[in-house]
Design a protein that fits this description.
The protein has 457 residues and is α+β, with helices and mostly antiparallel strands. It folds into two domains: 14-229, no CATH class; 235-455, Aminoglycoside phosphotransferase (APH), C-terminal lobe (Aminoglycoside 3'-phosphotransferase, Chain: A, domain 2, Alpha-Beta Complex), CATH 3.90.1200.10. It contains twelve helices and 17 strands. A hairpin with a 6-residue loop joins strand 8 (159-161) and strand 9 (168-173).
Length: 457
C-alpha cells in the first residue's frame, strides 16, 4: 500500500501514535503467527490509518518495512519489501490479569506514555463491540461495516478468540457466527468475501455464505474481515484424517465425498465467473511462473537444489502443451483443514482467501481447477506422513478415491490431465518446502519426500 495522508483519530494525536507504538511493535509483531516477515527484521513502521472505535479501542493499518533484498552489485537500489497489517489495539492504564496474554507492552514515550497497550481482539468487550458494528451497518472514518440484510445477527453473542490460525485471527460469537479478521491486508476485494458471496448467489450449499463484512477506503479499498455462519460441531478434514490413520480405519468414502464436494464448488464457480481458455502462451506463462518459484526456493532452501532438474521437467512438460483446457476462479489453497464435516456428514469448504503469501491479484486470477485437486492430494500425503510408521498406502487409496469422487460429479477426471496435475502438485510441494523451512523446520522432511518422488516421476 502507498503512503497515506496523515492518519486521523477522534481522540488521540494520531500523527504521534507511532512514537508510542513503534518500540512496542518492534518486539511484539514479529512474534505473531500471522506476521509474514519471519527472518526479515523490521526497519520502520508507517501508520497508514488510525481510527478510534471507542475511547481506548483503536483500529490501525500499519505498514512494516524491511531492508532491501540483496541485489547484484550493478543493480539499482530500490525500496525494501513491506507488508500492511491490521491491528486492533486497546489502551488502558492497567491491564487486568485476565488480559495478560493480550499484552503488547507499556508505552514509555509519546501520547500513550505510561499506559498499557494490548491486542483488543483478546478483550471480550472490544470483540463484542466489533460484532455490534457489523450488526448496525455504517461508517467510522475510513471503515465501512456492512451486512446481508436477509441475515439476522442476534445481539449479545459471547465472543471467543480461536488460537489455531496462522495467517489471520478469528472470533467465534456464541457458536453461531465466526469472524475472520485479515491480519495482512492488500488492496482489493479479498477472495474470502468475493467467492463465498458469489457461491451463495449460485445456491451452492457447500460454502457458508457471508453474513457481514467490513472494509477500508484508505489508503486504498481493501477487505478487512468477514463474518460467516459457524458450523458448530463440525470436524475439519485434517482431524478426521488423523483419526482414521490412528485407528487404522479406511478414509476412502470420506475422500470420495470430498471429491464430489470440490467438484460442486468448481461447477458453481464456473457459473459465477466465466472460465477462460488456456492457449499455448497462457500455458507457457503458468510453467514459467512455476519455474521461477522453484529457482527462488532452491536459493532459499539448499536441500531442494539436488532435485531442481527433475522438478523442472514437470513444468517443461506443461510448457510444451498446446492447451491446458480452461482456467476459472478456484479455492486456491485447498487442503484437508479447509474442509469441514458437520454431524450430517456433508462436506463444506471454507477459507477461500488463497495462499496468503501470494499477491492478492494472483490469488484472484483464474486457474485450472486441477490446482485445487493437487492441493488436496498433497494434503492426503501430509496426513499419511503423521502416522507412525507413515502409511503411504492410506494416502494412495485416498488420492484415488478423491479423484474418483471429483470425476463422478464434475464429469471430467483430473487424472486425464497428468502433465498439469503433476506440475501443480510439484509447485505445491515446492511451496511447502519454503513454508516448512521458514516456519516449521521439523516438518521439512514431509514435502521433501514428495519432492524426491515428483523429481523422479
Amino acid at each position: 500500500m502507498p503512503k497515506a495522508a496523515p492518519p486521523r483519530t477522534t481522540g488521540l494525536p494520531a500523527t504521534r501514535l507511532l512514537t508510542s507504538l513503534a518500540p512496542l511493535l518492534h518486539e511484539w509483531l514479529p512474534r505473531q503467527r500471522w506476521f509474514a516477515g519471519k527472518g526479515r527484521p523490521v526497519t520502520d513502521f508507517v501508520l497508514l490509518t488510525a481510527t478510534e472505535l471507542l475511547p481506548g479501542f483503536l483500529h490501525l493499518l500499519v505498514r512494516a518495512e524491511h531492508a532491501p533484498l540483496a541485489l547484484p552489485a550493478d543493480a539499482a537500489p530500490g525500496p525494501g519489501p513491506a507488508d500492511c497489517y491490521q491491528l486492533l489495539i486497546g489502551v488502558r492504564d492497567q491491564l487486568p490479569p485476565r488480559l495478560a496474554p493480550a499484552l503488547i507492552g507499556r508505552a514509555t514515550q509519546g501520547p500513550l506514555a505510561g499506559r498499557t497497550v494490548y491486542d483488543a481482539l483478546q478483550d471480550p468487550q472490544s470483540a463484542a463491540l466489533l460484532l455490534e458494528r457489523l450488526r448496525t451497518p455504517g461508517s467510522v472514518g475510513p471503515l465501512s461495516f456492512e451486512h446481508d440484510p436477509e441475515v439476522t445477527i442476534p445481539p449479545g453473542l459471547a465472543p471467543r478468540l480461536l488460537g489455531v490460525e496462522q495467517s489471520n485471527s478469528s472470533l467465534v460469537y456464541g457458536d453461531t457466527f465466526i469472524l475472520k479478521v485479515f491480519r495482512r491486508v492488500q488492496p482489493g476485494v479479498n477472495p474470502d468475501l468475493e467467492l463465498p458471496w458469489a457461491l451463495a448467489r449460485q445456491g451452492c450449499a457447500r460454502v457458508p455464505a457471508p453474513a457481514a463484512w467490513f472494509r477500508t477506503s484508505e489508503p486504498e479499498a481493501a477487505t478487512l474481515g468477514v463474518l460467516q455462519p459457524f458450523l458448530r460441531g463440525a470436524d475439519d478434514g485434517w482431524t478426521l484424517a488423523l483419526a482414521s490413520l490412528a485407528q487404522d480405519r479406511p478414509f476412502t468414502r470420506q475422500a470420495f465425498e470430498l471429491g464430489q464436494a470440490t467438484a460442486e464448488v468448481h461447477l458453481a464457480l464456473a457459473d459465477a465467473f466465466p472460465p477462460v481458455t488456456l492457449g499455448r502462451p497462457q500455458t507457457a506463462a503458468i510453467a514459467a511462473a512455476m519455474t521461477e518459484r522453484l529457482d527462488a526456493t532452491a536459493q532459499a532452501v539448499p536441500a531442494l537444489a539436488p532435485h531442481v532438474s527433475g522438478l523442472r521437467a514437470a513444468f517443461e512438460a506443461v510448457a510444451a502443451l498446446d492447451s491446458a483446457g480452461t482456467a476459472q476462479r478456484v479455492h486456491g489453497d485447498l487442503h484437508l483443514g479447509q474442509a469441514l464435516r458437520p454431524a450430517d456428514g456433508s462436506w463444506s469448504v471454507i477459507d477461500f482467501e488463497g495462499e496468503p503469501a501470494r499477491p492478492l491479484a494472483e490469488r484472484r486470477r483464474p486457474q485450472p481447477p486441477v490446482r485445487d485437486v493437487a492441493g488436496m492430494l498433497r494434503s492426503f500425503d501430509y496426513a499419511s506422513c503423521t502416522a507412525r510408521p507413515p502409511n503411504p498406502q492410506w494416502a494412495k487409496e485416498c488420492r484415488a478415491a478423491y479423484c474418483d469422487g471429483y470425476a463422478a460429479r464434475a464429469g471430467s477426471d483430473p487424472r486425464d490431465a497428468p502433465e498439469l496435475l503433476r506440475a501443480y502438485e510439484t509447485d505445491k510441494a515446492v511451496y511447502e518446502v519454503l513454508y516448512e523451512a521458514r516456519h516449521r523446520p521439523d516438518w521439512l522432511p514431509v514435502p521433501m519426500a514428495a519432492v524426491r518422488r515428483l523429481a523422479g516421476a
